[in-house]
Amino acid sequence: MSGLLRIKAIDSHTGGEPTRVVIDGFPDLGSGSMAERLEIFRRDHDNLRSGIVREPRGHDAIVGTILCAPVDPASAAGVIFFNNVGYLGMCGHGTIGLIKTLEYLGRIERGAHTIETPVGRISADLEVDGNVTIKNVPSYRYAKDISVDVEGIGLVVGDVAYGGNWFFLINAHSQKVELSNLEKLTDFTSAVRDALTKNHITGDGGALIDHIEIFSPSENADSRNFVLCPGLEYDRSPCGTGTSAKLACLYADGKLKEGEIWRQESIVGSVFEGWVNVKNGMIVPSIRGTAHITAELDLILDERDPFRFGINK
Ligand code: PYC
Question: pLDDT per residue over 17-28, tens digit each?
Fold first, then answer.
């Protein structure tokens, strides 16, 4: 039928956090690097971003991934990650979902695979037991113990760190890091993010800090987190890039040795294992978890449908 755009996708979840991998039907983004293709996506097809992940076809927690032909034929894939409000440089849970999707499609075997992302190449190992270990981009703490005056809350102290995305990590707070407290956690972390932006507190080179991560003790792991993603959704998984940022801070504080395993629990109780290796003075985090396939989809965008590009709030 004319007037219909058909996009094929596979859905999965990684520790409860959904990933929608677009495997066919997306417009051509050229043959440049993933960072260049992301800019073409943003400039020419941003309406498809919201059409793919937002209501009525999706929901705000979905992270979308465009599966791209890699620049280097030796890589397994290129990827561009996005969500309900914009684009992500890297996504840990999404990469685990991508690898399990490629396995499901019969496109990869067990072993290590290179994935090209907008922020650099990473490697992902599909293991015999079905787990996936990603070796992330080098991660680092950019600033320690930064105080920010948050409206209605007062002074909040945290670290600014990079794990493929920019994070503000808060250990000292009076929030209950529990699912029953989601609304307050969202209000608190979004107020912190607004205050960081208002006070021009950024990552390296003025980078926007768009993820806020707060921690509490855990009975099942070394720590439990709540991660506010860009927009107002939270990560159901322990957040691969957020755990990478956490590992970089722990290593910088001398609280984690090279190769020592850290178990990070999410707000829904899922756990990633993580550790760091130091290469040429750079901290390279590894994150281990798994994902489960939940659906094969034929997304249909009908030009007569006023909400084909999603409901934009
Ligand atoms: O796992 O890195 C991650 C991630 C970022 C945003 C949602 N998940």
Answer: 999 999 999 999
